[in-house]
Amino acid sequence: MPSCDPLLSVKNLVCSRPEGDPIFSNVSFVVNEGDICVLRARSGAGKTTLLKCLAHLNLYQGTVEYRGKQPKSYGVPIYRTHVQYIPQRPSLLPSTPRDFLETLSEFHARRKQGHVDLQHAVDVASAWGVDEELWDRAWNTLSGGEAQRLALAIGFGLHSAEILLLDEPTSALDLDTSAKVEDTLIEEVKNPDTMLKAIVWITHSEEQALRVGNRFLHLSASGIDEEATPTNGA
Ligand SMILES: Nc1ncnc2c1ncn2[C@@H]1O[C@H](COP(=O)(O)OP(=O)(O)OP(=O)(O)O)[C@@H](O)[C@H]1O
């Protein structure tokens, strides 16, 4: 019988600065299959911090459950392949995109997470205008937009994430390239034959929020509100 648990369930999340004062508290929401949840808030409100909590990369209080179970019951590394955070600035990674993809794919193969299609990542990046030679350049020599597209393509190529947590994924891209990336991501969520089932997507752009989102979440220090349309100037 199919599970009736939401894909991701977040209850009473609190995340604090090292000094102890909370960045946000009382954050509760669910993510269901087919959702592209746009997450907006003023700068510094804690959007990146929230995505890192969801990926179990930050300490938090409260509960995060993926398909009804907490990250530790999957093993945190496995959990992170299913609920995958893609940072805004991948250029801080060591080595090259190809090395990173191969390292991750070896990890996935070892854990028998299914087929690891390296060529798929290369093809997706090409469709987004990334030259193949960039796969072998050091991350820190790539432009912000090149690094951003390669990091996203790696997320796709691994075919293991059911939920992508995207931190301003097109912030470094021009409008045309951004539109291509948006279309690929939306199609991937809509297509029942692909692994990807939902996205939580941070954007400062109201226009982009309206293009990609079917749910609109607004984060503040006191919690998260769901809105019918994205908040102006978030
Ligand atoms: N490791 C840390 N130590 C201290 N403060 C931190 C740490 N990480 C984040 N913060 C603080 O937490 C707050 C939220 O940061 P976060 O990056 O999550 O905000 P954001 O909403 O994503 O911002 P932006 O829209 O500018 O990217 C900020 O005030 C930030 O300075």
From TrEMBL:
Residues 8-234 form the ABC transporter domain. It holds the Pfam family ABC_tran. One of its GO terms (molecular function) is ATP binding. InterPro entries: AAA+_ATPase, ABC_transporter-like_ATP-bd, ABC_transporter-like_CS, P-loop_NTPase. Keywords: ATP-binding, Nucleotide-binding. PROSITE patterns: ABC_TRANSPORTER_1 (PS00211), ABC_TRANSPORTER_2 (PS50893). This is ABC transporter domain-containing protein.
